[in-house]
Specification:
By secondary structure, this protein is mainly beta. It has seven helices and 36 strands. The strands form eight sheets. Strands 1, 2, 4, 8, 9, 11 and 12 form a seven-stranded mixed β-sheet that branches.
Length: about 575
Amino acid sequence: MRFAASSWLFLLFVGTTIGANLDELVDKFTMFNLTTKTFRSPPVSLKSGQIANTPNDWGPLDWPEGPIAIHMFQGNLVDEEGKQVPLSEVYVHHWLIFALDGYTPLHNDGVCSPLLNVYGIGAELRGEPYLYPEPYAMVTTGKEKWTANLHFIRTTNVPDVQDCIECRCPDSDPPKHPRGSVGCCPDGGQCYGMHNSTHNDAKNYYLEYTIGYTEVTPKHIPLTIYSMDATASDTYDCHVDYNIPGPLGEGETNTLVGVSDVPANMSVVYLEMHQHIGAVNFTVDHIRNGHEVRMCNTTPIYGSGGHAVPGNETGYLVKIPYCTWEADKPFVLREGDKIRMTSVYSGQTLPGGHPWHAGVMGLIYMHAHTTKPTQTVCIDHFEKLCGRPPYKDENKCKECASRNWMSLKSKCTIAMVEEQCQITGGTGDIPAPADVPSMSLNVSPYPPTAGQTVEFTVTGPSNTWFAVGFNAEKPLMEDGLGMVYQRLDGATSATLEERVLGNHNAGKVINANYPHEVQTSATTTVVKFKHVWTGGKANCWLFAHGEVFEGMQLQYHGATRGYSCGYPKPAIGNITLV
């Protein structure tokens, strides 16, 4: 575990105690040029023993306008008057905040499909702020719809609080066969033991959340969330919760070990873990080629301040220390590495509770920078086994997937494979591979004919060079044309450069300052240019861009690249044909 000695975010929070005054923290953030804003969710009305478990698209939540770079996020639970509410009154089973484009989650790339949230976890909300070392940040577009899944349980007047907050199911048979599950805590229902309740004492509660952010600059390195679950047996089959039979005597523990594959290359700067009451330890180990390194080791902290002291409630799990790394020394994971999660529980429980547990969890969320989404990793591996699309027959494609499932399952979900097999037909009009998700291309008119002037509109990241290649008859792009938008070292402005591409190299420059128009925002640059189409059926396309660390000057080797070919329509992702 590393703390950034040079990062003001971590210097600020070293030594922060449970239940620290949020107003004081906001004042400190303001001193460091972070804009901070505090919002509240819509109200959640609860009677004694009642459950709220809102859908994932519940909201929308208020959010700062425009593209922003989030460096800090902190959650809280308050009542109508803005006073903090103790867990002994309303238990926060979980609070999950999503960024959606329609119904598609953003800023989270799996691997657990039930856990596609950006922020939020459980009852430890007050003791676990999200903090990122500069220049890492959660970079938003301003177009996201922010929503929440809030699972709150009001425990006033409940006879067995432990059964209630562990979401005991009707078929539970403790102590040897306890069973609890999120599914046994439906929205609007009553928790175990309260189904015949006549209490009519509804109160409104709110998730209060504070966001610390700055404007987006080219220096920011965007983060993506990756979730993993100790219950998974093959990375993607995340069961989320599990049960611990008892009774567990003093000194006895229950240990669950899960191993998941790392889906893509990534640099991790923040890692959080989630467990429930009874947890005593959580370790995360990194495994590469049989060599193991302890990535994170944490011991949950339990409250001792009294029954109704928000942030320090006696017997409740109130904090799970997270792990973080310095901006210049992130924890580097490679595709194919393994993560071992070890979740340890004891019979520890609330005063008056029992020494077994139901519906507990052992989850991790890694906040990391990556240039290759999980779906791209899956598709790359799938195409090595079953070929590139378009596929002549969807069923035969699925048969290939079934034959190779033992190899595919560590990198793919069933949904990813089914989507890939739906790319059929002989036209080559297929969705873009996600190798270069931050780029797009518009070609007009299409398909062009030889000698025709074509207008290209290329969108790429604003903080590094990018390029498109075309007029090539094979994916190697040799002798094809390439247009590179870059700023040479020492130059004051960027230019568009025309090249003849080589075989696995950047080729030679034809025109160092090709005529073009450009529009730049905080996150993207749009370049428009016209070019005479010289190819007939030569329609292999290349997209490429550099890493933010490389700056604006072309560095061909190590670039993020993607290509595809097709006729009459190019089989390349994110290309819009007019």
